[in-house]
Amino acid sequence: MDQAPGSPDRPQAAHGLPGCYRHPGRETGISCTRCERPICPECMVSASVGFQCPECVRTGSGTGHAPSASRPRTIAGAELTSGDPRLVTKILLGVNAAVFLAVLADQTLADRLNLIGLAFDPRIREVVGVADGEWYRLLTSVFLHQQVWHIAFNMLGLWWLGGPLEAALGRVRYLALYLLSGLAGSALVYLLAEPNQGALGASGAIWGLLGATAVLLRRLEYDLRPVIALLALNLLFTFTMPGISWEAHVGGLVGGTVIAFGMVHAPRGRRTLVQAGVCAVVLLVSVAAIVLRTQSLLT
Q1: How many domains in the chain?
Q2: What InterPro entries would the database entry show (predicted)?
């Protein structure tokens, strides 16, 4: 059971680091700069110096420090919103599940939405693919799954990684991270894979969240060894197991890492401008790769 906000106790987590005073099971190395209670990424509110807990922000009281800005913000500068902290994550889960059920009902849907560079479809006797003008495949494939194990694995990753990132970045920034990571993964698949090789799944976006998690934990001065071990293990599977599109994983990882770095390290005075600029750079690089590949396939 969670301790009530305002408790002076400092709950101790299992591995020695203190636990968040609002979520005792979550280890953290960050404390509120006003009341000095330990706080996790979901509870952190960006202040002029360091981070504050929601209780201190709401009451404007503390240990003699001046009140912070009237509108509390996350570590990435997003205004704190009321309501479900995992709203966007749940919507993404719902969209993936809905597309999966639609594919079960109509098996031809997967062929119309998956990522194909350029290929001749003998069933409809037409050329199909991104190079033939079907640009939507670059994003629809990110929400497309055919096997139960595939969607289950990706959605577990989305749930575990997405919630803390959504709380730390804010809904709009988090959604941009997810979509641009997925697009970056699709762009690298399109650029490097055989044009008639189909690809689908949310793996590129999930790897973007994994890279963003590493960046966030480093920014908060957490122990990165568990995340590095997870990354290394997943990279091993990516490059040794057959049937896995390594291009989607690498593209999503690089895109998500770059975006997250820009979001959590942007200078306070130009935060929104820098964050939008980093997202624009990832988008432009992805578009450039797509245009380059399209030209090479059509010439």
Answers
A1: 2
A2: Peptidase_S54_rhomboid_dom (IPR022764), Rhomboid-like_sf (IPR035952), Rhomboid_protease_S54 (IPR050925)
DSSP character for 16?
S
Which residues does residue 51 pair with via DSSP β-bridges, in sequence order? 46
Residue 132: its pLDDT value, please? Answer: 93
- Whether 203 is a known active-site residue: answer yes
* pLDDT at res. 50: 66
Question: d(Cα 144, Cα 139) in Å, to the nearest integer?
Answer: 9
Taking Cα atoms as reference points, which of 146, 82, 88 lies closest to residue 113?
146
Catalytic residue from among 203, 245, 286, 296 = 203
**249 catalytically annotated:** yes
Neighbouring CB atoms inside 10 A of 76's CB total: 25
| 3-class SS of residue 115 | strand
> Does one domain contain both 56 and 109?
no
Which one of the listed residues 249, 265, 286, 296 is annotated catalytic? 249
pLDDT of residue 122: 76
Find the domain containing 239 and state its range: 87-298
Output 197 or 206, whichever has higher pLDDT: 206
What is the distance between the alpha carbons of residues 193 and 75, in angstroms, rounded to a whole number?
37
**For residue 46, is pLDDT > 90?**
no
Q: Please indicate, yes or no, whether residues 155 and 251 belong to a single structural domain of this protein.
A: yes
Domain annotation covers residue 233? yes
Q: With 80 as the cut, is the pLDDT of residue 68 above it?
A: no
Average pLDDT over residues 10-32: 69
For the CA atoms of 3, 166, 40, 16, what is the dihedral angle to 10 degrees? 110
Indicate whether 82 belongs to any domain.
Answer: no
